[in-house]
Amino acid sequence: MKKKIILLKLTGTIFTDPKTKKMTRSFIDSIIEQLKQLSKSYQIGIVIGGGNFFRGSRDNDTLKLRPSIAHTIGMMGTAMNGLILYDLLEKEDIKTTLFCALNCHDAGKPISQQSIDNALTEKDILIFSGGTGNPYISTDTNAVIRAQEIGATELWKATDVDGIYSTDPKKDSHAQFIRQETYQNALNNNVHIMDRAALILAQEGNLTTRFFNVFEKNALITAAKDKNFGSTMIHLKGTHT
Predict the structure, then answer these.
(1) Is the pTM of this model over 0.85?
(2) In 10 A of CB 29, how many CB atoms?
(3) Does domain 4-234 have CATH number 3.40.1160.10?
C-alpha cells in the first residue's frame, strides 16, 4: 500500500531542556521513537529549525548583525540540528537521507528533485537542513517548498503552541483558539501562525497544514490518529490573494 507523504516541520528546541536551555536527549528520544512508528505507514520529510543555536529575532537584537548574516547563521544552526537528528535516527536503524541547502558536503547531500525522488524511492526519512540556502526566507516557507518537492499532502508544523490562535496566546490571555482556518482568512486577518510567503505558497499548492504542540505526550502519533488534534489550515477553491 502506498504510504501517505507528510512534511514535518520541527522546532530546534526539541534538543534542549526547557529550563536550562542546554542540550539533552530527554525529549528527542521520544520523537525518534514516534518517527520509527510513523515510518511504517508514512513517508516522512523533516525540516528542522535552528532556534536552539541561533534565532535572528532574538539574538540579533543584541549582536546587531546585518540581516543577511544573521539569516545565514540561522541556516547553519539548522544544518547542525540536521546532522544531530540524522545520526540519532541512523543509530536506531531508521534509514535516513540528510540534505543540506548550504554548500557544505559534510552537512548533507545537495538538494535536487532527482536526489529527493531517489530517497523517496528508497523509503527513507528525508531531513532538509540549511534552509533554502538563501537569506530572508523563513523556515516556514522552506517547509512549504520541501513539502511540495516531496509531494506531501500535509504539512505538520510542530512547535510549542497548541494550534492557531486569533492572537499570540503567550502575550494575550484572551486569545481565541481556532480549530480550522483558511489561508485566505489568515492572510486577510494577519494571523501570525506562519509568514505571508509561506501562507501564499501553501495556498497556491493546495497544501493542508496542521499546527500542534509537539511537546504533548506522543504528539506525532496523536496527530496521525486524530484529525482534530491541534488546528488545521486549508485552501478553499475559488479564493485568491
Answers:
(1) yes
(2) 12
(3) yes
